[in-house]
From TrEMBL:
Domain of life: Bacteria
GO cellular component terms listed in the entry, alphabetical order: plasma membrane
TM stretches of this protein: 33-49, 69-88, 100-119, 125-146, 158-182, 188-208, 238-256, 276-296, 303-324, 330-347, 368-388, 394-418
Gene: bcr
Family the UniProt entry places it in: Belongs to the major facilitator superfamily. Bcr/CmlA family.
Subcellular localization: Cell membrane
Protein name, UniProt field: Bicyclomycin resistance protein
NCBIfam families: efflux_Bcr_CflA (TIGR00710), PRK11102.1 (NF008314)
Alphabetized UniProt keyword annotations: Cell membrane, Membrane, Transmembrane, Transmembrane helix, Transport
CDD domains: MFS_MdfA_MDR_like
SUPFAM superfamilies per the UniProt record, alphabetical: MFS general substrate transporter
PROSITE patterns: MFS (PS50850)
Gene Ontology biological process terms, A to Z: xenobiotic detoxification by transmembrane export across the plasma membrane
């Protein structure tokens, strides 16, 4: 078995692949290589980079196009992520992981250049949508590749490591975006995103082997995926973790959409200082993801998930209190957001691993539906922000709190349903 399907004239290809992957990429590998984590983390960072690098420029873009609803470009981006993931999941199960990655990465590069050249808000929105369609391939296939190679707690640990790599994006991206705005136009941000897409395209083409061989690929036509999605949505074992994960993600996406207008527009923070604030919250996400990897050695994914969700609901209620009363001012809002955002490093890896665990042969399909549900919820939550014209942190706080409370409630309901079903099976 060759490590990557390079053309013959790439004489150093095997050596390059071995550098990144080690000696084997067989399913259920015992230890993931650093190269694997780096490549998958870069691909999964399409989403975070495309939002976080761009975030400090939102007020500038709104002023240039004389459109106060510039944050709606975020909602459109999340919608594109949702639709793209529904497409790439079945494609990756049928064609393998590499080919969809190459096509999606190419589309991401071209759409990023389109954003850089957009002369109006409608065209910017259009290219942002295409950018999301391309970038969503990284979010789907990385989870599917993890499921190809790892199982159970090890899969959750690998996702935690990916969160560490991805966590560097929200720390560095707003800082870089703010510095770009000091010296260049906001369009330079999208040029940088196009260059990042080219880097990922090269990594996929040269260093990423195929982890989903033809013998394991589905032979059903693509249109049959609709029926597969419907059947998956009827399975309690999937919904028990996918719906809470989506609602928690919706609260997180609300923060992404509102953070820049709140801290820059309401509290008067400069774009450069906003990068530091946003980076601190992202640092909390990195810490919690690594804490999760340690906790998984002694605790089950389910127990960690319950505790993290409870903690985040408490933080969200504190955020509402701080935003409504002004308690603690900007510091009070930031402190509550630190927990609300950081807790995702405990929630997301465990919820995703538990949702995908029963579906080894449909990893791409389950991954795409899991991501699409989260992105759709994020797009809806981001759109709800537009219904609140007041310039304050309260709308953001309320939406986050409602999302987190609903997530915890749904999780409890589904656990009762699953327990009841198990008891009925034992009795029968």
């Amino acid at each position: 078995m060759t490590l990557c399907p390079l053309r013959p004239w790439y004489t150093q290809g095997q050596r390059f692949c071995a550098l990144f992957w080690g000696n084997s990429v067989e399913p259920a590998s015992k230890t993931p290589s650093l190269g694997l984590i780096f490549i998958l983390g870069a691909l999964a960072a399409y989403g975070p980079l495309s939002t976080d690098l761009y975030m400090p420029a939102l007020p500038t873009i709104a002023q240039e196009f004389q459109n106060p609803q510039a944050h709606q470009t975020m909602a459109v981006y999340f919608l594109g992520l949702s639709l793209g993931q529904l497409l790439y999941g079945p494609l990756s199960d049928r064609l393998g992981r590499r080919r969809p990655l190459l096509v999606g990465s190419g589309l991401f590069v071209l759409a990023s250049l389109g954003c850089a050249l957009a002369p109006s808000m409608p065209l910017l929105v259009f290219f942002r949508f295409l950018q999301a369609l391309g970038g969503s391939v990284g979010m789907v296939t990385t989870l599917a590749i993890v499921r190809d190679l790892f199982r159970g707690r090890q899969a959750a640990q690998v996702i935690s490591y990916l969160t560490l790599v991805m966590g560097a994006a929200p720390i560095l991206a707003p800082l870089v975006g703010g510095q770009i705005l000091l010296y260049l136009d906001w369009r330079a941000i999208f040029v940088l995103l196009a260059l990042f897409g080219l880097l990922c395209l090269g990594l996929v083409g040269l260093a990423l082997p195929e982890t989903h061989p033809p013998a394991r690929r589905t032979q059903s036509p693509l249109w049959a995926a609709l029926g597969d999605y419907i059947r998956l949505l009827r399975e309690r074992a999937f919904l028990a973790y996918a719906l809470p994960n989506s609602l928690m993600g919706a609260g997180f996406f609300t923060y992404l959409s509102a953070a820049s207008p709140v801290f820059i527009g309401v509290y008067g923070v400069s774009p450069q200082h906003f990068g530091f604030i946003f980076g601190l919250n992202a640092f909390g996400l990195i810490l919690s993801s690594q804490l999760n990897a340690l906790l998984l050695k002694r605790r089950s994914s389910r127990r960690i998930l319950v505790g993290a969700m409870g903690l985040m609901v408490g933080a969200a209620l504190g955020l509402v209190l701080a935003a409504a009363t002004g308690l603690g001012g900007m510091l009070g809002v930031w402190a509550a957001l630190f927990v609300c955002v950081g807790g995702m490093g405990l929630v997301r890896p465990n919820a995703q691993a538990l949702a995908m665990e029963p579906y080894p042969e449909r990893a791409g399909l389950a991954s795409s539906l899991l991501g699409a549900l989260g992105s759709s919820a994020g797009a809806l939550a981001g759109s709800l922000l537009g219904l609140f014209p007041e310039a304050s942190a309260l709308p953001m706080a309320l939406i986050i709190a409602v999302c987190y409370i609903l997530a915890l409630g749904l999780f409890g309901v589904f656990q009762l349903l699953l327990r009841t079903s198990s008891q009925n099976l034992l009795r029968s």
